[in-house]
Amino acid sequence: MTPLPPRAGRRCHNALNPLHSTVYFSPDLDRELSRLGVADARAAYFASRSAAMGAVGPGAVVAAFYNFNPELVARHLPAVWETADPEQVLAARIRAADTTLRRLLGEQVIASKELEEAAELALRAAEGCSRHARPLYSAHADLPVPGEPHLALWHATTLLREHRGDAHLAALLLAELDPLEALVSHTATGKGMAPGWILATRGWRREDWEAARERLLGRGLLDADGSLTEAGTALRTELEERTDLMDRGPYEHLGADGVERLTALGRDLLMTTFAAGAFPPDLMGSA
Hints:
The protein is mainly α. Helix content is about 70%, strand content about 0%. The chain is built from 16 helices and no strands.
């Protein structure tokens, strides 16, 4: 078998992960959860992403999601399960994924051989995932694979996303970055969410953000203007390399040619969703 090129799995993840994430920025998810009586957007997010684990409380979600303020999580969990049970939420989420992808990609792409091929490749890659110490991945791996190709692809991207995500949390712990330090340092790379979005969605206050910056400054990872130092850049690079190492299973299972093809197909689909306005224009950035 041809060895995987360096960072091939990461490139494939970067092409596929936003395809999964479209549903969390979609008005369709809010609409589906509102029909169940879950009107708050944060409650809808916590419920829809954690429902595969069952009617969990705030502790499980704080641990598995990592970078949310525990006070925000506790505001919505476990109370949301009194309004809608996990099975109802999972059904609503797959309906939202269906309408979101149809709207963003268009029916011609939905019915294409390329999308069907992407689904087959992504599911094959997911066969190489491992369950141990991966709670979000493992919970989603218990869910059935949808029959329609675009939903099968979305399910597979969910598995691959949560598999890498669970590994990344282990890398963050090893780097001794707490939830806000992880967010601040990621934003400083220029590839993370803008601070305004983080504060609005993760439940942290501006003073929490500034305190995390001070801690990173004290460790020599940020400089006075909030940019990564050489040590900070090295740490973020090491974080991704450690995550790559723990996430290599699915891509080694798929093989170099399959990974290259899936990455190309994923990028085409991703560009289509971007062009259709899947994500807010001010979502990313360090300002």
